[in-house]
Amino acid sequence: MNNREKFISTISEYGFDINKPFGISCSGDEDGVNLSVIIQGDDKKFWNSDARLAAITHLIGALDYKHDLDADYDVFQKYMLAILDSIGKAINWAAPYDEDRNIEVVKKFIEHALGSNIVVDAEQEGLIDQKEEDDIDFGI
Is the pLDDT of residue 134 over 80? Predict the structure, then answer.
């Protein structure tokens, strides 16, 4: 079995449909790849980044830092800061702000968004302020 056949066999075992588009994102260093993510979603959404956004929000929501609290009490804050740092880097690349730190870029972006109608638009489109399926609104 060649490498292509092994790859197809492996991703098929995990439920990926090789006849639908998918993306592979990898990161690594001189020692090689140390993280690979395969993303596959609805054909209509895949090409306009909706599948990637869904994957990002899923991965953030799936973080399990509770078991790390014994080793480092501040692990939650450190994880959130790392996520916000990455977001700030992406924001600064797409819409440069005159800030030195990525976390400050996030702050400026949020301040700007809250002062505009984009927050209302994003809420109406179901992009933000989503509740988990098991969240219950008690109307309080």
Answer: no
3-class DSSP state of 116 = coil
CA distance 3 to 52: 26
Place of tokens 């800030």: 99
Task: Kindly tell me if the per-residue pLDDT of 59 is higher than 90.
Answer: no
Please identify which residue in the block is written with the tokens 């209509």.
44
Residue 128: count of CB within 10 angstroms of its CB? 13
- Residue-wise over 83-105: b if at least 16 C-beta within 10 A, else e? ebeebbeebbeeeebebeebeeb
Which tokens in the block code for residue 51? Answer: 């599948």
Q: Residue 6: is its pLDDT beyond 90?
A: no
Q: At residue 96, does pLDDT exceed 90?
A: no
